[in-house]
Design goal:
Shape: elongated
Radius of gyration: 43 Å
Order of helices and strands: EEEHEEHEEHEHEEEHHHEHEHHHHEE
Structural class: alpha/beta
Strand content: 15-25%
Distance between the termini: 106 Å
Number of helices: 12
Helix content: 40-55%
Strand order of the largest sheet: 3-2-1-4-8
C-alpha cells in the first residue's frame, strides 16, 4: 500500500508539514543573512524525523515543498519557437540576460502558456513562458535537511500552489496571503501569473492597531483578534472600536495593493485573513467595486492554503505541482519521474520467483561442497576397522596388566628409611620377586 504523500510549506517564520491527516508546524529562527540558525536546523531535523518515523530499510519518499515568495523573481518571457531539445538552451540564454544572477547560481523552473495566456500547450508560432527563479542556496539548505530525514524534495512556488484553491474568474485577479509580519501578493492575468510582491504588512500590524486603539497589551489584543469570530463582542462600543482599529490597520495594506495591482477580484488566505470582517473592510478601502473573498480552508495543524492547494494540484495533475524549481537542470520535461505500475508488478513477480526458486538454487550451489565432504567421510570409513583393532588391543593390555603401581606403593610405605631396591618383577599371576638391601 502506498504511504500518504508528504506536503511541506517553507515559510519565513514557520515550517509546516502535512502527511495524510497528521500535521506539524515548527517555528523557524533565522540569521541576519536569512539562513537558519544551527539550533533551528537541529531542532527541525529532529522534529521532522520523529514526525515521519521512517525506518532505515524504507525507501526515500517524495515531498512536495512550497517555498515562500521572499527572494523569488517571476518573469513572463516570449521565446522564439524551438524544439524541446533546444528549449533548455534558449531558456538559459534568456535567463542570463533577464536575471541578475547566472543560471548556475539559480534554482529555476518554467511553465509554458497557451495562446490565451493560460498554462497549457506551447504555441507553435511563439513560446510564452512563465519563469520563476531564486538563489540556489535557499533551496539547497532545505534540500540538505530533508535529505537527512530520508526525503527527496520537489520544490514549487507557494503562491502558485495557493492559486489552485481559487475559482479563477476570467480577467485579472489577485491572491493575498497574510502572514505574521508580511504578506505575499500574486497577480494573475487570464489565469497566468503576472507579478509577485512581498508587502510589509501582516497580522502583527492588525494586533498592534487594536492594542493602540483600545489601550491594552499586545497579548490581550492578539487574544481579542483571534476570538473575533468565536465570541460575540459584548458591547457595541467595543465592537466599533475594534472595527475602527481594523480599518486603520487595513488602510496602508490597501494602498500597497493598489500600487501593484488594479484588478477587480482579490482572494485572501492566511491565519489573520480568517476573520470575517477582514474581507469586507479591505474591499471598502480598495474601492472601485473590488470584490474581496476569503478562501475557506479546513482548520488544523499543517493545513495552510499553500499545502492544501499543492495537495489538490498534485492529485489533479497526476502527481505534478504547478511549477517545479530545480536545483539541477533537467534534460527532460518538467514531470516528476515516478515508477510505472507495471514496473512495481515486475519487481513483485521477480521477488516471488526468487522466493520459490531459492531452495533449488541453494541445493545447486552447495552440491560441490557436499560432494567433497561425502568423499572425505567415505575415505575415513576405511580407517575405522584399524582403529577398532588397535583399541581392542589397548583395552586388553589395560585389563591384563599386573598391579605394578599398587605393589610398589605398598613396598615404599612399608620399607624403613634407607632401604634400596635393586630389582623388582611381577608376573600376571601376581607373584612378586625383588632384590635389595636394608639400612645397616
Amino acid at each position: 500500500m502506498n504511504s500518504p504523500s508528504l506536503y511541506i510549506e517553507l515559510g519565513q517564520t514557520s515550517f509546516k508539514v502535512l502527511k495524510g491527516d497528521a500535521g506539524l508546524e515548527i517555528p523557524l529562527e533565522r540569521l541576519e543573512n536569512g539562513g537558519l540558525t544551527d539550533s533551528c536546523r537541529e531542532k527541525l531535523t529532529h522534529s521532522l524525523r520523529d514526525f515521519l518515523k521512517k525506518k532505515g530499510w524504507q525507501s526515500r519518499s517524495h515531498a512536495f515543498c512550497a517555498i515562500g515568495a521572499r527572494g523569488v523573481s517571476l518573469r513572463r518571457l516570449t521565446l522564439p519557437s524551438s524544439t524541446k531539445e533546444e528549449l533548455q538552451r534558449v531558456l538559459r540564454l534568456q535567463i542570463e540576460s533577464e536575471f541578475p544572477l547566472p543560471p548556475e547560481e539559480l534554482a529555476w523552473g518554467y511553465r509554458p502558456l497557451d495562446s490565451a495566456g493560460r498554462p497549457g500547450i506551447v504555441a507553435i508560432a511563439r513560446q510564452e513562458m512563465i519563469v520563476v527563479a531564486l538563489k540556489k542556496e535557499v533551496l539547497a539548505e532545505y534540500s540538505e535537511i530533508l535529505a537527512g530525514c530520508g526525503v527527496n524534495p520537489v520544490f514549487t512556488l507557494a503562491a502558485l500552489a495557493r492559486n489552485c484553491l481559487c475559482p479563477q474568474p476570467p480577467g485579472s485577479y489577485a491572491l493575498l496571503d497574510v502572514g505574521r509580519s508580511h504578506s505575499e501578493l500574486i497577480a494573475f492575468d487570464n489565469g497566468a501569473p503576472a507579478s509577485i510582491r512581498i508587502l510589509p504588512w501582516g497580522g502583527e500590524d492588525l494586533t498592534r492597531s487594536i492594542a493602540e486603539k483600545l489601550g491594552i497589551t499586545h497579548q490581550e489584543a492578539e487574544k481579542l483578534k483571534v476570538n473575533l469570530d468565536q465570541e460575540p463582542v459584548a458591547r457595541a462600543e467595543l465592537g466599533q472600536q475594534i472595527q475602527s482599529a481594523m480599518g486603520a490597520a487595513l488602510e496602508p495594506l490597501a494602498t500597497a495593493i493598489r500600487s501593484h495591482w488594479s484588478g477587480q477580484t482579490i482572494y485572501l488566505s492566511g491565519r489573520s485573513a480568517r476573520h470575517k470582517d477582514i474581507a469586507p473592510q479591505l474591499a471598502r478601502h480598495l474601492g472601485g467595486g473590488v470584490a474581496c473573498e476569503r478562501l475557506e480552508l479546513m482548520p488544523g495543524e499543517g493545513r495552510s492554503a499553500a499545502i492544501l492547494g499543492l495537495k489538490r494540484s498534485t492529485e489533479k495533475e497526476g502527481g505534478s505541482p504547478p511549477l517545479i524549481l530545480r536545483l539541477k537542470e533537467a534534460k527532460g520535461g518538467e514531470s516528476i519521474a515516478r515508477p510505472a505500475p507495471w514496473k512495481w508488478a515486475a519487481v513483485a513477480g521477480l521477488l516471488a520467483i526468487a522466493a520459490l526458486s531459492f531452495p533449488y538454487a541453494e541445493a545447486l550451489l552447495l552440491k560441490p561442497r557436499l560432494a567433497k565432504r561425502l568423499s572425505l567421510v567415505k575415505a575415513d570409513k576405511g580407517r575405522l576397522s584399524t582403529i577398532d583393532r588397535e583399541l581392542t588391543f589397548l583395552q586388553f593390555l589395560k585389563e591384563s596388566q599386573p598391579p605394578y603401581l599398587d605393589a610398589v606403593s605398598l613396598i615404599a610405605r612399608s620399607a624403613p628409611a634407607g632401604s634400596r631396591i635393586d630389582s623388582l618383577s611381577m608376573n600376571r599371576r601376581g607373584d612378586l620377586a625383588l632384590k635389595g638391601s636394608l639400612k645397616d
